[in-house]
Design brief:
- The chain is α/β, with parallel strands linked by helices and 332 residues long.
- It contains 10 helices and 18 strands.
- The strands form 5 sheets. An 8-stranded mixed sheet has the order 4-1-5-7-8-9-12-13, with helices on both faces.
- Strand 16, helix 7 and strand 17 form a beta-alpha-beta unit.
- The N and C termini lie far apart (46 Å).
- The mean pLDDT is 96.
- It binds aspartic acid.
- The site of aspartic acid has 10 residues, from loops.
């Protein structure tokens, strides 16, 4: 029988009702008590790492989860991390950079409804997560509503329904139906994982709106070591008559800040070269674009890279080098 470590971090799945709404209170043993079937599938040991609504999860918690996996790696065949859904896609992306090439499955799951609700997705998701941790591929994945999504490709796209997550610009890896696993894509993994334990969390994200004031760009470019700008369509910066955006970004780039352009459109990614509003930036400034990467992955990847180097050429090389299928677009 496979031996799986369950790392609990909180989320709706473990929540009880309080006068102000749901808050995580159940421990992993209590969660497993609702699903006796899991004890027939594998041997489970539990680690209650946090008990947080994932709104409160920060990069230090990503490092904590990665450290827990590292400390326990040799003793288990796979890992199930129960986690709130709200920021699960960020945690999945971050773990994909902090634990690379794992031959053992590292599975995140959670639920839209607490485990004690009559109508809950908790039982299915947790059972499927353990099945995948026993029989699935290595690497970091989200298992949710019968689908297995690459950790770097997930995004929460429904705030209430059971189908909470989508795989962005990449197919699902597998599906689970009535305890059967259909593995469409096998993730590539190495003999042994490579662990990282450093992030530069001084990374900011700016979502443009029509009329965004250039002072905001100037402030964020000053404040952060890495700035990701979610612009419109395939990407670009406003060229308003009063100007200023281009100069703000040029100033930041000249100071050695890393600027990454991406898009707020959910699918198909960026291509700055299509329009003058993007092409002019791309051809004159040393900046990066996220192409088909998710914003969640771009944020986590930039924190991971800036934890190692701030040299533009090295940042560029690492940013465009695929990790766990996070980017397919290849830069020659
Ligand atoms: N607010 C909750 C959380 O992210 C939502 C959930 O788990 O579904 O922790």
């Amino acid at each position: 029988m496979k031996k799986i470590l369950m790392i609990a971090t909180g989320g709706t799945i473990a929540s009880e009702m309080t006068p102000d709404g749901l808050a995580p209170e159940l421990n992993p043993q209590q969660l497993l008590g609702f699903i006796p079937r899991i004890a027939e599938l594998c041997r489970v040991e539990c680690l209650q790492l946090y008990s947080l609504d994932s709104t409160n999860i920060q990069p230090k918690h990503w490092l904590g989860i990665a450290a827990a996996i590292r400390e326990n790696y040799d003793a288990y065949d796979g890992f199930v991390i129960s986690h709130g859904t709200d920021t699960m896609a960020y945690t999945a992306a971050a773990l994909s950079y902090l634990v690379q090439g794992s031959p053992k499955p590292i599975v995140l799951t959670g639920a839209q409804k607490p485990i004690w609700f009559d109508s809950t997705d908790s039982k299915r998701n947790l059972t499927d997560a353990f099945i995948y941790a026993c029989r699935g591929c290595g690497g970091v994945q989200i298992v949710f509503n019968g689908r297995v999504i690459q950790g770097t490709r997930a995004r929460k796209t429904y705030s209430k329904s059971f189908q909470a997550f989508s795989s962005v610009n990449y197919p699902d890896l597998a599906v689970l139906q009535d305890e059967h696993l259909l593995q469409y894509i096998r993730s590539e993994c190495s003999e042994a994982p490579v662990f990282y334990d450093k992030l530069n969390t001084n990374v900011g994200l700016l979502k443009l709106i029509p009329g965004t004031q250039k002072e905001l760009v100037e402030f964020m470019a000053r404040r952060y070591d890495g700035l990701i700008i979610e612009s419109f369509g395939v990407g670009g910066l406003p060229e308003y008559e009063h100007g200023g955006f281009y100069d703000a970004i040029r100033g930041a780039v000249e100071q050695g800040k890393i600027v990454v352009m991406t898009t707020q459109v959910p699918n198909e990614g960026s291509d700055l070269t299509v329009y003058h509003v993007g092409g002019h930036l791309k051809s004159t400034l040393k900046l990066l674009e996220a192409y088909d990467m998710t914003t969640e992955a771009a944020v986590a990847k930039l924190m991971w890279i800036l934890g190692q180097t701030c040299d533009f050429n090295e940042v560029e090389r690492l940013f465009y080098a695929p990790v766990a299928k996070d980017i397919l677009y290849s830069v020659e």
